[in-house]
Amino acid sequence: MGGNNNRAVFIGIFVILIGAIFALKLFVLQVADPSYKLSAESNTRRKVIQFPSRGLIYDRNGKLLVSNQAVYDIMIVPQDLTAFDTLDFCESIGVTPDELRSMFVNMRKQLRQKKILPYKPSVFYKQLSAERYGRFQEKLYKFKGFFVQRRTLRKYEYPLGAHVLGYVGEANKKLLKKDTYYSQGDYVGISGIEKVYEEQLRGHKGVKYELVDVHGRIKGSYRSGRFDVPAISGNNITLSLDIDLQQYGEMLMKNKIGSIVAIEPQTGQVLAMVSAPTYDPSLLVGKVRSHNFGILSTDSLKPLFNRAVQARYPPGSTFKTLNALIGLQEGVLTPATEYSCNMGYHTRSLSVGCHHHVSPLDLTHSIMISCNAYYCHVFRNILDNPQYGSVQAGLNAWKDFMVKFGFGYKLGVDVTNEARGFIPNASYYDKIYRGSWSSLTVISLAIGQGEILTTPIQMANMASMLSNRGKYFTPHVIKQIEDGDIPERFRTVHETGIDTANFTPVLKGMELAVQGGPGCTAGIARIPGIVVCGKTGTAQNPHGKDHSIFIAFAPKDDPKIAVAVYVENGGFGATWAAPIASFMIEKYLTGEVSQRRAWLEKRILEGDLIHGNKK
Predict the structure, then answer these.
(1) Residues 348-395: tens digit of each pLDDT
(2) How far apart are CA 263 and CA 125, in angstroms?
């Protein structure tokens, strides 16, 4: 009997416990947790995504380059639609009846394809201006099923730096699959800084729940905003660009094809990056972007092509400085080494021409004069160095130095679409000549011709490396990130493996090339009161007139700026590239161009190499 009583008590307790659990659960659902009401009240509650403002972009001196402007997307919930005055709707947002019909045709197509759902909001009309939004908002109560969502578009404060800044557009399908942060219709950086620093600039989306009546009018915040999540604006960033120097560089390159890259040697920060022809970045903002992109992308002058990091050219005689450094480091050359030149380097089977100059020359004056014959001797001594045992091993050792100088591979700059350039190795020539070749076969490499290809950013980095006597930082356009650090790779010093002492005769030669007397190749780049070190180059162009090249840095003993300039079809390095580089240096260091050189500045500014006016 006692056992039965215990069992009954146990069952009773169990039933009471289960009942208590259910009662507690009902209490939690109905009182403590209001989420059940969210479903019950869904017909009066609207979820609105709060899009963050992208971070602002400033230049190195704090000048605002890129800000934001408000636009408004008209959203639609298809199942909530009722008949409305289409003409009034068209007049409110500024479209024609045919355009409105096309929007509805597109919406029905998306519904059939289940790209949008009838009970969920989707974009019906994009980027309504603030002015139009004011008119439409007043009449919104007439158009049941529609509401407005605020967005921001980029606003460019200067019509400059388009290739560096890049542009913003809608996220594509590939990105939507890759990153769950983005939804269809979200804006994302497509190129330039906007793309590279997208995560820092984009911020974090929020959400707001609104109470609306049967006419779609907002009646207030749902449950006092308890479930709202505020949007967090993106981080502001400061670029290393000097927008005044950038503007001046774009002026100098007007009606020319080519590029300018200027770097601060002590940090690797890019002061200016000019690609010409260029375009106004505002052309790729908002509704006009698709139309303008089509025009720009079919332009024969390729204004969308960032020549500063994508174009590949032979470096020409600027490479003589590097071959001199390798020769000194390898012990096959001394500062006192002299070679003769009889209008070039001549063997029984080959001749490499040169201009008329005094002969023989030592190392320093070979750079000042830019003697081709001298560097044919130096280059052959490097490749035929007995310590390597073969020309193949000699060439590979030469290439290893070139890679340490920053050539042959991508530097890793924070600008999109960087090209790698090309430095040939022994295997490359073995395939072409079936293993039967000599230093004479590849002699064109001695003067920066042949198969060598470099980018302007690599050349500017070379000028920076020379000014630092063998050290450099990876070039970059980021200077500061709000609440963050710039990438570590931009704070890492790269060593070239050349003894600092070997730079002395080379840099002296570069100084004399600009500051020297008769025979110097870049006297046109001389700046009053500033010691400039430079080297001209002329890149052979099989498709037309040669390209004009110049690299330089200044002041010699305390370098503040290093520059590389390419002017396509500009001829000799001293004709166009050298004066352009000198004006960039002078403008940056002094803020103005001296009156003594005003005539030359005028010639450069007015020079037109595209349409034929070559003053």
Answers:
(1) 888 999 999 999 999 999 999 999 999 999 999 999 999 999 999 999
(2) 44
CB 344 within 8 A of CB 373: yes
In the chain, list all ranges with CATH 3.40.710.10.
243-279+305-606
Tell me which CATH code domain 243-279+305-606 carries.
3.40.710.10
CA distances from 329 to 324, 378, 452, 501 (A): 9, 12, 21, 10
Tell me what pLDDT residue 270 has.
Answer: 98
The single-letter code of the amino acid at 412 is G
Asked if 454 contacts 310 with a C-beta cutoff of 8 angstroms, the reply is no
- Considering only 19-28, 144-153, 198-207, 590-599, which range has the smallest mean pLDDT? 19-28
Prior bond of 386 cis (ω within 30°): no
Helix axes 577-590, 598-606, angle to 10 degrees: 120
By the 10 Å C-beta count (0-12 exposed, 13-18 middle, 19+ buried), 611 is classed as: exposed
Q: Please tell me what DSSP assigns to residue 185.
A: T
Q: Which residues contact residue 457 at a Cβ distance below 8 angstroms, ignoring those fewer than 6 apart? A: 261, 273, 308, 309, 411, 413, 415, 418, 475, 564
Residue 282: CB atoms within 10 A of its CB come to 18
Burial class from Cβ neighbours inside 10 Å (0-12, 13-18, 19+) for residue 390 reads: exposed
Q: Which CATH class, in words, describes the domain spanning 48-236? A: alpha beta
Cα–Cα distance for residue pair 207/322, rounded to 1 Å:
58
Closest residue by Cα to residue 549 from 258, 291, 162: 258
Q: Could you tell me how far CA 183 lies from the centroid of its own chain?
A: 25
d(CA 561, CA 563): 7
315: Cβ contacts below 8 Å, ≥ 6 apart: 448, 452, 454, 459, 537, 539, 549
The boundaries of every CATH 3.90.1310.10 domain in the chain are 48-236
Using pLDDT thresholds of 50, 70 and 90, give the confidence band for residue 41. Answer: very low
Phi, psi of 149 (to 5 degrees): -125, 130
Those residues whose C-beta lies under 8 Å from the C-beta of residue 187, and which sit 6 or more positions away, are 151, 153, 168, 169, 170, 171
Cα distance between residue 410 and residue 422, in whole Å: 10
Strands 64-76 and 45-50: unpaired
